[in-house]
């Protein structure tokens, strides 16, 4: 085409070349996908939609807890929203949680449970969830969590005299639980209670006091008439309780042992069975988790046989041996492996079919970066 342009002035020639180059650039931009490689949409961690998905995930976690304590949402760390074929979206989330003072078997809604304070040696959870949003409804497809107590160094900074969590199989802890449970059964006019689990303990060596918290279950024996606890059986309709106790050792010169205990007995309750999500061990959420089979110290009392639910909606917490060298019940035991399920059918299946990273999506408005706000405190 140079022959057609030879007669043009120099300025006109330069303008024609510039227009041609701009046209080429426009054509390249038109055929190139925006944000190549981005297969998800970003969402503000504090967006109402993010929080709604997170609260559904937390509800799922607490409904699958049978030991330890309920957890509450503290912070949303990351959110990615993937398109799901053929319909719906999958929220891939990282969430920080905090332990509350409500036991897992306590029917109190988690919104009414107090968060465990830093001075009580707080425990933080770290969870990964995939939550499906389909027709405006959120359902958990995948859950994986772990948890850990705050460091002893940080505890001393907040409260130098506060004792850290003690191992649940510590001999002082075992003895304190035994003494506290015996004291409660001596005081009660109702059923004889057996130990379900030792939930938490702290040992104050300076004051020679051991603080314990533990879960109990009612039996068919009358407390004041028991002669052989081994002959007592759990009630057909399971009834659980939760106790807080303290045990003071004898002093080196004088003094007596002291035991204090308060227990709350929960009304007989039916716990909902979670949708069938299998773990690697073959257990299904909603069925009784299997006891921890690791070696244990001598428990404070004869543990009852694993209770069996009396109806399809009744979930019984299993009796648990005292964990070896653990100071708390790690959330990683709640979901033993990757679990995914298509919620619409309730059938266990593969991970959701989401858009692949090579599939581009249209750029959306710029969102604020994650992580989101801290609702309580950061560990």
TrEMBL record:
<keyword id="KW-0677">Repeat</keyword>
<protein>
    <recommendedName>
        <fullName>Alpha-2-HS-glycoprotein</fullName>
    </recommendedName>
</protein>
<dbReference type="GO" id="GO:0031012">
    <property type="term" value="C:extracellular matrix"/>
</dbReference>
<dbReference type="GO" id="GO:0004869">
    <property type="term" value="F:cysteine-type endopeptidase inhibitor activity"/>
</dbReference>
<dbReference type="InterPro" id="IPR000010">
    <property type="entry name" value="Cystatin_dom"/>
</dbReference>
<keyword id="KW-0325">Glycoprotein</keyword>
<dbReference type="GO" id="GO:0005794">
    <property type="term" value="C:Golgi apparatus"/>
</dbReference>
<dbReference type="Pfam" id="PF00031">
    <property type="entry name" value="Cystatin"/>
</dbReference>
<dbReference type="GO" id="GO:0050727">
    <property type="term" value="P:regulation of inflammatory response"/>
</dbReference>
<dbReference type="GO" id="GO:0001503">
    <property type="term" value="P:ossification"/>
</dbReference>
<dbReference type="GO" id="GO:0006953">
    <property type="term" value="P:acute-phase response"/>
</dbReference>
<dbReference type="GO" id="GO:0030502">
    <property type="term" value="P:negative regulation of bone mineralization"/>
</dbReference>
<dbReference type="GO" id="GO:0072562">
    <property type="term" value="C:blood microparticle"/>
</dbReference>
<feature type="domain" description="Cystatin fetuin-A-type">
    <location>
        <begin position="40"/>
        <end position="146"/>
    </location>
</feature>
<feature type="region of interest" description="Disordered">
    <location>
        <begin position="274"/>
        <end position="310"/>
    </location>
</feature>
<keyword id="KW-0732">Signal</keyword>
<keyword id="KW-1015">Disulfide bond</keyword>
<dbReference type="InterPro" id="IPR046350">
    <property type="entry name" value="Cystatin_sf"/>
</dbReference>
<dbReference type="InterPro" id="IPR001363">
    <property type="entry name" value="Prot_inh_fetuin_CS"/>
</dbReference>
<keyword id="KW-0597">Phosphoprotein</keyword>
<feature type="signal peptide">
    <location>
        <begin position="1"/>
        <end position="30"/>
    </location>
</feature>
<keyword id="KW-0964">Secreted</keyword>
<dbReference type="InterPro" id="IPR050735">
    <property type="entry name" value="Kininogen_Fetuin_HRG"/>
</dbReference>
<feature type="domain" description="Cystatin fetuin-A-type">
    <location>
        <begin position="157"/>
        <end position="271"/>
    </location>
</feature>
<dbReference type="GO" id="GO:0050766">
    <property type="term" value="P:positive regulation of phagocytosis"/>
</dbReference>
<dbReference type="InterPro" id="IPR025760">
    <property type="entry name" value="Cystatin_Fetuin_A"/>
</dbReference>
């Amino acid at each position: 085409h140079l022959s057609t342009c030879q007669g043009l002035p120099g300025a006109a020639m330069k303008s024609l070349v510039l227009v041609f180059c701009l046209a080429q650039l426009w054509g390249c931009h038109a055929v190139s996908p925006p944000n190549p490689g981005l297969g998800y949409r970003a969402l503000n961690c504090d967006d109402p939609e993010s929080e709604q998905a997170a609260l559904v995930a937390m509800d799922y976690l607490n409904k699958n807890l049978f030991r330890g304590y309920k957890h509450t949402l503290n912070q949303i760390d990351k959110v990615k929203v993937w398109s799901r074929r053929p319909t719906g979206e999958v929220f891939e989330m990282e969430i920080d949680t905090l332990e509350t003072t409500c036991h897992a078997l306590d029917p109190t809604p988690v919104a009414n449970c107090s968060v465990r304070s830093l001075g009580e040696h707080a425990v933080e959870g770290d969870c990964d969830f995939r939550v499906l949003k389909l027709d405006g409804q959120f359902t958990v497809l995948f859950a994986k969590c772990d948890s850990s107590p705050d460091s002893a160094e940080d505890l001393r900074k907040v409260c130098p005299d506060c004792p850290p969590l003690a191992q649940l199989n510590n001999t002082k802890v075992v003895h304190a639980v035994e003494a506290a449970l015996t004291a409660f059964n001596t005081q009660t006019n109702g059923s004889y209670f057996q130990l379900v689990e030792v939930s938490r303990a702290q040992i104050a060596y300076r004051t020679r006091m051991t603080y314990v918290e533990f879960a109990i279950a009612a039996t068919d024996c009358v407390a004041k008439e028991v002669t052989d606890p081994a002959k007592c059986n759990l009630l057909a309709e399971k009834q659980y309780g939760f106790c807080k106790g303290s045990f003071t050792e004898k002093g080196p010169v004088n003094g007596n042992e002291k035991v204090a205990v308060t227990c709350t007995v929960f009304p007989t309750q039916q716990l909902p069975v979670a949708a069938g999500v299998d773990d690697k061990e073959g257990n299904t959420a909603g069925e009784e988790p299997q006891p921890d089979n690791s070696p244990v110290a001598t428990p404070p009392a004869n543990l009852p046989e694993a209770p069996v639910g009396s109806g399809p909606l009744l979930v019984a917490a299993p009796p648990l041996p005292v964990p070896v060298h653990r100071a708390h019940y790690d959330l990683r035991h709640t979901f033993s492996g990757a679990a995914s399920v298509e919620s619409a059918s309730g059938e266990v299946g593969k991970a959701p079919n989401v858009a692949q990273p090579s599939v581009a999506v249209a750029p959306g408005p710029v969102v604020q970066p994650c992580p989101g706000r801290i609702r309580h405190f950061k560990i």
